[in-house]
C-alpha cells in the first residue's frame, strides 16, 4: 500500500516558492551575462565599470583595495599570474595601481567593459604564457612593473615573490634558487640579473651539468651553482 501523501505545510510551500524564485534569478542572471558578453565594447560602460573599483579620492586610479575587490569579483587570487598578464595587457606602470588611461586602452584592446567579459578572457590570458616569446615579454615587463620607479633595481623580497609567481611550475629549481636568495648577501636584483635568471632556467639542465663556469653568466648565477652543488649534489654523492 502506498504511503500516505503528506500534506504540504506553509513552511514547505514557502521553501518551494523561494527555491523557484532563486532558480529564476539564476536563470535571469545567466541570460543577462550571456547578453553582456555578446554586446560590443562600450567606453562609457568601461568607465562605469572602472569607477566601481576606483579610489574615492582619486576617480582616475584603482588602488590596492580596488584591485583586491576586482580579484574577488573575478574569483581569482591576487597572486595568480593571470593578474600580471592583465596588468601587462593594460601596460600598467605601477604595481598595485591601474590608471584609467591604462584601463581604457588595455580593456578596449581586449574588448572588455565588464567583470563578466574579463572573467571570460582569463583562460585565454593564461594560455598565452605557454608561448615562450610572449612569456619572455611578460617576464621582462614584470621587472619594471614591480620596481620602485625611483630605483633602477628590484628589492629582493619583491623579486623573490614575483619569481615564484612567474617560474613556479616552469623551473624545477625555483624553490632552491629562492632558498639561495633568502640566505644570500643580495638585497636587490638589477635588470641584467633578472633577465639572466630566466635564461638560466631555460638553458641549464636540472643537474647543472651543462653550466659553463667560464661563460658570460652574472656572478649571481655562479654563486647559486656553487651553493647548490655544495648543499645538494655533494650531499647526495656522499650518501
Number of strands: 4
Coarse structural class: mainly alpha
- CATH level-four homologous superfamily name of the largest domain: Cullin, PONY binding domain
User: What topology, given as strand order, has the largest sheet?
Assistant: 1-2
**What's the oligomerization state?**
single chain
Query: Class of the largest domain in CATH?
Result: Mainly Alpha
Order of helices and strands: HHEHHEHHHEHHEHH
Mean pLDDT: 88
| Molecular shape | elongated
Taking the alpha carbons of the first and last residues, their distance comes to 76 Å
The CATH topology of the largest domain comes to Recoverin, domain 1
Largest sheet: 2 strands, antiparallel
Rg from Cα:
25 Å
Q: Helix coverage percent of residues?
A: 55-70%
Descriptive keywords:
239 residues, mainly alpha, Recoverin, domain 1, 2 domains, two-stranded antiparallel sheet, 11 helices, 4 strands, 3% strand, elongated, DCN1-like_PONY, PONY_dom, ubiquitin-like protein binding, cullin family protein binding, ubiquitin conjugating enzyme binding
Polypeptide structure, described:
64% of the residues lie in helices and 3% in strands. By secondary structure, it is mostly helical. It folds into two domains: 40-130, EF-hand (Recoverin, domain 1), CATH 1.10.238; 131-238, Cullin, PONY binding domain (Recoverin, domain 1, Orthogonal Bundle). The strands form two sheets. A two-stranded antiparallel sheet has the order 1-2. The protein has a two-stranded antiparallel sheet with strand order 3-4. Helix 7 (132-146) runs antiparallel to helix 8. The longest helix has 29 residues, at 10-38. It is elongated, with a radius of gyration of 25 Å. Mean pLDDT is 88; it is low at 1-6 and 23-35.
Amino acid at each position: 500500500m502506498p504511503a500516505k501523501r503528506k500534506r504540504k505545510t506553509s513552511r514547505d510551500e514557502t521553501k518551494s516558492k523561494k527555491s523557484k524564485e532563486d532558480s529564476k534569478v539564476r536563470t535571469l542572471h545567466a541570460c543577462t551575462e550571456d547578453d553582456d558578453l555578446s554586446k560590443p565594447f562600450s567606453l562609457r560602460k568601461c568607465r562605469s565599470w572602472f569607477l566601481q573599483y576606483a579610489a574615492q579620492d582619486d576617480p582616475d586610479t584603482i588602488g590596492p583595495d580596488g584591485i583586491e575587490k576586482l580579484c574577488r569579483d573575478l574569483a581569482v587570487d591576487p597572486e595568480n599570474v593571470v593578474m600580471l598578464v592583465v596588468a601587462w595587457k593594460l601596460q600598467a606602470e605601477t604595481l598595485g595601481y591601474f590608471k584609467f588611461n591604462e584601463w581604457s586602452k588595455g580593456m578596449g584592446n581586449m574588448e572588455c567593459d565588464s567583470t563578466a567579459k574579463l572573467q571570460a578572457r582569463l583562460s585565454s590570458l593564461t594560455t598565452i604564457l605557454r608561448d615562450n616569446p610572449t612569456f619572455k615579454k611578460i617576464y621582462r615587463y614584470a621587472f619594471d612593473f614591480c620596481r620602485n620607479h625611483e630605483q633602477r633595481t628590484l628589492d629582493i623580497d619583491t623579486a623573490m615573490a614575483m619569481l615564484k609567481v612567474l617560474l613556479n611550475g616552469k623551473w624545477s629549481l625555483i624553490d632552491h634558487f629562492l632558498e639561495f636568495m633568502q640566505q644570500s648577501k643580495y638585497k636587490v636584483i638589477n635588470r641584467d640579473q633578472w633577465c639572466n635568471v630566466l635564461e638560466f632556467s631555460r638553458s641549464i639542465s636540472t643537474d647543472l651539468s651543462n653550466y659553463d663556469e667560464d661563460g658570460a653568466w652574472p656572478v649571481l648565477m655562479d654563486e647559486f651553482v656553487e651553493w647548490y652543488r655544495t648543499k645538494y649534489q655533494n650531499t647526495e654523492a656522499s650518501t
